[in-house]
Amino acid sequence: MTGMAMMQILIRMSIQGSIIVGIVWILRMVFRGLRISYRYCVLLWGIVFFYLIFPWKIENEHGFWRAQPESMVVAVSADGPTVVTGLGTGIVLGQSAVPEQNVTPGQSTLPEQMNGTDATTVQGTNFEAGSNELPVTAAQSNGTAVMPFLSAAFTQVIFAVRYLWLAGIPCFLAYFIFSYVRMKHRLAECLPGEEGVRYVDGIRTPMVFGILRPQIYLPMEMKPEFYDCVLQHERIHLHRRDYLWKILTYLISIVHWMNPVVWLAYYLLCCDIEKACDEAVTEHLEPEDRQEYAAVLLSMATDTTARRIFAAPVCFDEGDIRGRIRHILKCRKTAGKLAALAVELCIIAALVLLTQKSAVSSQKTEEDFTEMVTTEETGQVQEQNLPTIYIQQEEELQAPSPFRIENYYITERVTAYNHYYIDNDGILWGNGYNENGQLGTGSYETDFDKGQFDDVRIADHVVSVDADWNNNFCIYLTEDGNLYGLGLNMAGLLLGKDTVKQVYSDMDNDRVCTPTLLMKNVRYARAGREAIIVLKEDGAVYWWGQLRTTSSTTVGGYDEYWSVTENPLNLVKMMYLEPHKVLDHCIYVDINAWNGAAITEDGELYLWGLNIFGQCGVSKSENVHDFVREPKKVLDKVSMVWLGGIRHSDDARTFDADISAIRYGYNNFALLEDGMLLGAGDKLGKDSVTTVMEGDLDEAGSHRCSFSFVPVKAVVYSLEYNREVLSRMQWGMQREEVRALCTDAGLQCDVASENASLYIENSKYYCYFDENGGLDRIQIQAGSSRDGRFLVDKTTLEELQRNIADADDTLTQVKSVEEDSWERWQYEDMQEQIRYYFTVYEGIVTVIEEEQMINEEATK
Predict the structure, then answer these.
(1) In this model, does residue 103 exceed pLDDT 50?
(2) What are phi and psi of 265, to 5 degrees?
(3) What CA dihedral angle connects 385, 386, 388 and 392, to 10 degrees?
(4) In this structure, are residues 74 and 83 in contact, taking their beta carbons and an 8 Å threshold?
(5) Taking the model in full, what pTM does it have?
């Protein structure tokens, strides 16, 4: 690993560590609000410093962090170091940012005017399935890629900061050694006391000092009445090895010395250690004794000279005296339930914050996709081998002929915080939060607790409504062809070009709190995250707003990302501040956060926008950058198109809370006239794209994708479908067999390590395996048992007992907690040789476990 690679890893650890510090600080406030002991706060800080020193994390598909493979961090060529910018491109120090016209073989030949933030493409023939090595990009191998907005001067600053950071580490380390030697020399002249205690003349602050053989040092002038509690305090430090933890965390802080957030974490850790030690001393003391202990601390606070002498990283000073005294007088012993809760929260925080996504997606291998072929005998695609996608309802795939736009009016839309619907009288109603004025009440309310949870009448004579999942704004179409909008006026989207203002946060935009007319003579319209697309009565297609790239933290692209100027050379967005005509003779349109689409009268499908994973159906050979800037024809004989997931009108009554199952941010889908369903983009096909930047992407590294539309199959997402997939599992199936069964059926399947259990569909289900790797237990937290007899969160204990009694079997209670409402019951189905465990909470079955019964047990 090169020094630059190590430095980038260190910077990433420090930045992400700062985020963890913030999360831990919030949890610490929660703990203190619940009066939970500081000892558990110390455990939380342990998570922070563990993360700051260990770059290796537990990898799984749903990890908290996104992995960045070492091979993607930096490249070094004969011409000098190449700084990888995070967008798949790099720049060589000292070289021009514009490639020369006469390039040698192997050099970059990108055009001078770039159209997007490039993500390097590797065709499927160069991708070896199962390999841990990621494809090497041209920028990495030759160091000649282009990044116009990153100057050589800026990269020089990066290298200067790197050397300053590295130079500071030995300086702090030298200070640590100097402090230790100075302290040891000062404490050499001491008098021995009882075992492990030394007395020092001229100081008034007790302390623990030493590494291998630590001792307690007490001031000779200390009052005799203070002796017992002070000595007990310092012995608790010794017992808990606090002196070692302080030294270790100080050394870790040295590594990140340029990050003030890390030093804040170090300071708070030391304060929490002291307060946890105070708790251990005083938790059994009477109020009068606590006041005496507080007096001891107060006497220490008066000796500023001693505090100045011993303010070294090798021992404990008595900092934050005021806070400690206040805590001593108010603290109480943590209740058992709160202590258990604190431990559980610490474990959960560690498991979440110390996990990362794998650098290479393992959801599908190349061999899985080679089976997507057309048989010579039937000429039909082998459906059982197609990648599976989820849909909300079967009706979504119906395309009535002849085409009528009225069939695709949206009469109900559910977003993250709002619900809009049109009743039988054409009245548009809405409810939910109103932080952007999107409910049309004439005002807005940023306090989420003051949302409009009663229906609000927004407009009359409405035929279609749409809003993006992010709740930025809402649009609706009336019977007379007028299009109205209300909500956040992003880049003048609702109020026009003249109202555009420069902001660096979406929420700083103006709010439109009453419906405003956007356009007349409209046949159909859709809303994206920050854009609107309109189909006019004459078949013309207009769109305006912006389609931005995947991240707002692009290196050197911050101003470009927030720019409110139309610029076709902007690398990170496409923008039009007023309606921009792109096509004629169309019958349908759609738009989402990243793409726009239109179907012509002849059934031709046009797509444009972000193409980082080929979701426009355009190969990188045709478009070397991330954006397809003009509508590109990609398919013929198309009856319908969906962007980011197959979805039209919603149904709030059956709307699954786990909406993420049917959302595909970097995929687009099309239905052909012959009924074949196609998809393009992420996790489809046999192409691959290598990205360095994380941003909004699921992970950095190599992504399997398809730059053309390939056949897929759709399944209605439901717990019943999941149950049917689980019922196909057989006891003894190997881990990879179970995983293949789930992924082929479209279920998300993750594993923390090679021999770990599988967790399926965001931990709704768990599969456990014996020492031979065979399936022997299944845990179900949603839906029903695999045979459908027992329902999670619906079957009561009385119903459970009655059903099992009717089968002449016995339900046995195996665990009950008197202080809680949890119970655990066991049932052995001798006929099926399955042992069931039911977790019952307040009389309702909440978890079902199915376990294989071995032959000896089944014959008892």
Answers:
(1) no
(2) -60, -40
(3) -120
(4) yes
(5) 0.52
